[in-house]
Amino acid sequence: MKLVRKLFIAALVLIWLLPLAFFDFEKESVSDIDNRMLTEWDFSQSDITAMVDDYIKDRIGFRSEMITGYTLLNDTLFHEMVHPTYTYGKGDYVFFKMSDETVDETFLEAFVLQLLKVQTYCEERDVPFIYCINPAKTTVYSQYLPQGYHYQGKFLETFEQLLESYGIHYISNAELLIEKSEDEQVFDVQYDAGHWNDLGAFYGTNHILEKVSEYFPNVSPNTPDDFNISTRLQTSLKVSEFPIHEEVPYYEDKYADRIVELTEAYSGLKMDADYHSFRYLVNEAGEGLPRVLFFQGSYLNERHRFFESDFSEYYAVHNYENFLDFEYYFNIFQPDCVILETAEYATNSDYFDYDTMVETVYAPPLDKEKARKLDVSFTEEKDGSLLTLRFDAEMDGRALYLETGGHVFDIMEDEDGSVFCTIDVKYYDPEDVTVWIGD
């Protein structure tokens, strides 16, 4: 009897010690089960107690296994999803965790004014700008939301009124996808609660291409015949081990063999540490089609197959904070068209810094009649296809421009006060370099 008691106590001690033995001390560790960075040990936080508590909860050994086991047990016994990311709706639909439906009108107006700045910048250089807002699953399938959650759609209503009032060239995929959802499954019932599926992407991207065709008539929306259409069986929720059994649509570009990826040549591209997805694709059959600079989020980052054959060159930049460096990317890629896409739930101050938007000022186009040439020295730094020129100059609130190879580029000021201009090396002519300074 004493041996059994000792074994029992030893087992209890082991159960307590094992999670500590497998404690995760790794910096910048990511949780696969809820797709986020784990809490870091950081005494600069205002609430040290909360930081320590979150750190231990996040990094205790077997955290993912414990969450998965607890979630499965609740689902089996009570058909209730106890999960850090997901929740059940009606009809076994899966949604992100529900939150209060709030509208930050101060942020939204600053965001729309940022769009207006970019749109004006592009139009002054004869480049069309298009903005697309993509609805959340909660908007498209609101009838399946959890019992007791009342969806009003206040965000999109307020946002679209602002877009209209400031004259932004935009499209919304909300009405289109709600209409399509009456007969077709444009978001998965369960697998991906956060994004449209490939059928929804087919309709949503075609809506964008229809808008592009207003500026470039040789661009036309895709047809089902442009894809090999099939389904794929998904056996767990996306970024989760929660078991499901759902066939989801998959669209494969029939003309993918014409697409050449040259992303690696731009490995030195400056990007936000949290949003660093970039892809550069060239369509070998794209003669006469426009070159697009596309700021896109998770709705499109893995769905380049819906656009790659519709442009001659496709520069796909992860949006959010990178979009606030718009001028930097425009300088490099010199696009024929600029598109920004954001998801309904990712259009807020968590993704787009309010102060940066308010303070952002873009240079007007170069007016040589009002500008003068500046005799200034510079150094060259080459990194793959990127060339950065650093100038021995001060901006002092005035606009500086680099003219070379028949193109004009904005010269910018870095955070440390240095004056620079990063361009694609193919636009650089070392025998033809002029620096201009505006009034």
What's the layout of helices and strands?
Layout: H1 2-21, E1 30-31, E2 36-37, H2 48-59, H3 63-78, E3 86-88, E4 94-96, H4 105-124, E5 129-134, H5 137-140, H6 154-165, E6 170-172, H7 174-181, H8 198-215, E7 227-236, E8 243-253, E9 259-261, E10 278-283, E11 291-296, E12 313-318, H9 326-333, E13 337-343, H10 354-359, E14 372-373, E15 378-383, E16 386-391, E17 400-404, E18 407-413, E19 419-424, E20 433-437
Parallel strand pairs: 5-6, 5-13, 11-12, 11-13
Antiparallel strand pairs: 1-2, 3-4, 7-8, 9-10, 10-12, 14-20, 15-16, 16-19, 17-18, 17-20, 18-19
Describe the protein's architecture and organization.
- With 439 residues, this protein is α+β, with helices and mostly antiparallel strands.
- The chain has three domains: 20-96, no CATH class; 105-180 and 207-216 and 256-359, no CATH class; 372-437, no CATH class.
- 28% of the residues lie in helices and 24% in strands.
- It has ten helices and 20 strands.
- The protein has a seven-stranded mixed β-sheet with strand order 6-5-13-11-12-10-9, sandwiched between helices. Strands 14-20-17-18-19-16-15 form a seven-stranded antiparallel β-sheet. Strands 1-2 form a two-stranded antiparallel ribbon.
- Helix 4 runs parallel beside helix 6.
- The longest helix has 20 residues, at 2-21.
- The chain is globular and about 85 Å long.
- The N and C termini lie far apart (93 Å).
